[in-house]
Amino acid sequence: QGQHKLAKTFKTVLFNEERDKEFNETLRRNNVGTQTKTKSNKAGRFHYYQCTKCKCCSEILSDKTPHRCHYGTNRKRCETCKLFFVKRHTKHETLHKTVRLNRKMIKITPFTPKTIIAQKYKPIASQKIKTIVRLYKCECGLHFTSTKAIERHSESCSEGAEISKEKCSKCNRLFDTTQLVTHLCKHHSNEKNTTFEVVVWNKSKDSDSKHAVIQCSDCESLFCSKHAFSVHETTCGSNNTFCSTCGLKFHSPLTHQLRHKDCTNLSIEDYDITITVPVKDKMRRVYKCEKCDVYYLSYSGVMYHITDGNHDMSKVAPCPECGLNFMPKTLVKHIAVQHKERKYTRDDLIIEIVPYKADNKVDSVKKTLQIEQQNSPKSAIKEKVKAQSAAGSKANNAARQSPTEVHCSKKTLSAMSWNSYSNNLFKCHICKVHFINRYALRAHFFREKHNVKTAPCPICGYVFSIYTLDRHKYIHHVKKKLKRENFKLKSVGPVTVVDYNSDGEYGQSREVAKARDVEPMEVVDDVEDSVVDSDNGDRSDSELSTGSIDAATLAFNKKMKGQIINVENILYKCGHCTLHFLVEMTVFGHISIVHTQNT
């Protein structure tokens, strides 16, 4: 019984369990200084983990808190054991003082940081993978990123419309300006390793449709593209070979076979052959401007000259061989190609006169006058030129006066938001020209150009600028179906000029008659003093009526005694409110926007 009672006072404690390992490790570190010198205090008593990259030592290596390498001032070196530490440097130095720690008592276990392992074994997703991108190339040389884009382009390309082109700065391929932005963002952003696969777009997707080829009229050789034919024009006459399969004569049979892989199933009936203009006749042509007697070697050159409107004859030089007038750069090419290389004389040249007021939509104006011989009567030539010019101007005026025809491109009409316009017309009181919005009238005032080319609207009869007439017809008559009685006319109101002295006091006022171009008047002496009180120079706005304008002006002129009005001492007052302005055009813009009134 005594043993049984004694056993109740004891308690069994387990040790060296899994849950006690972390606690024992912490207890061992904290009781380092209190331990006595035993055999276990010597070799390998202190255990450190050393990084193989930065050589820093740590007492604990945990997966939860990965090691970060430190360099420079972040790490500190122990002068006794020559080891590097980051956070435990002070604690390590205390061990040298208390325990007399040396290098033999330290056990070092090297480890490799996880950052190096991640760099050695990168996942496949992070590596640069070559991507293959398909581009669609049109026969005109432009590239597109999708089939829908090139289908829309093929419609306008077949009609011969002018398309803005630009080269890609990365891959040197030719793109439409709208497609170039998409191409750069999709294919050249983020340094992508991209490989392009160019697919030549065939407009006729039907297998039964004919293959389009171009035939040279001089050597009768065939070409698969317009670009190949344009290169051939300069070297026409070289040897051409026949295709061994279909029997047609191609300039480059290899290109023909690569493009038409099913050449074995084709015959001459399967090709749509386009015969070009003879190269000899094309090289004989020169194009003349109707207005300024300047010749060009290409139709695009003379059209650019007509569109630019610069008909300065100071830089024109005559050709010493044929006497035709050319620009300096064109003259050098004309002599080298047409006289030295082709041995053409004046009689061999074909001159095409391009009308000055050429309109692409009028067929009659497109016709040109061909002069093949120099010995033709000059009077007959002049009569033909005058008749052609008269026909062109007549057709141009008829097209402009037509009520329904609008000479604007489809792109311009589609971008025009005609719903935002009202039935108001804004009229300039100086040149009597109408505008479709007030901002255009304001810009017209600030430019101070009242001699613009005008034309009346054939439907409502109001006068517009020739550049605004088509827009007015499309917005108000084609879309809104408005008539003359449906419009509300608004114009600029009256403006008053107020002269003031150097002391800042306002003097007399007078109305500006801008429509009559009134200049600063000299003062006359035959004016009575009773018109205006000389002691009181200030006048209220109610006194600035139209009836007292002349009397006030004459009184002010008498006060100046033969002097000219000083332009610097003039303010411009709005006739609707009490605001004053320093510049005349500013008050006109203010009235046209704020105080537009019905006329």
TrEMBL record:
<dbReference type="GO" id="GO:0005634">
    <property type="term" value="C:nucleus"/>
</dbReference>
<feature type="compositionally biased region" description="Polar residues">
    <location>
        <begin position="390"/>
        <end position="404"/>
    </location>
</feature>
<keyword id="KW-0677">Repeat</keyword>
<keyword id="KW-0862">Zinc</keyword>
<protein>
    <recommendedName>
        <fullName>C2H2-type domain-containing protein</fullName>
    </recommendedName>
</protein>
<dbReference type="GO" id="GO:0000981">
    <property type="term" value="F:DNA-binding transcription factor activity, RNA polymerase II-specific"/>
</dbReference>
<feature type="domain" description="C2H2-type">
    <location>
        <begin position="428"/>
        <end position="450"/>
    </location>
</feature>
<dbReference type="GO" id="GO:0008270">
    <property type="term" value="F:zinc ion binding"/>
</dbReference>
<feature type="domain" description="C2H2-type">
    <location>
        <begin position="574"/>
        <end position="595"/>
    </location>
</feature>
<keyword id="KW-0863">Zinc-finger</keyword>
<keyword id="KW-0479">Metal-binding</keyword>
<dbReference type="GO" id="GO:0000977">
    <property type="term" value="F:RNA polymerase II transcription regulatory region sequence-specific DNA binding"/>
</dbReference>
<feature type="domain" description="C2H2-type">
    <location>
        <begin position="289"/>
        <end position="311"/>
    </location>
</feature>
<feature type="region of interest" description="Disordered">
    <location>
        <begin position="376"/>
        <end position="404"/>
    </location>
</feature>
<dbReference type="InterPro" id="IPR013087">
    <property type="entry name" value="Znf_C2H2_type"/>
</dbReference>
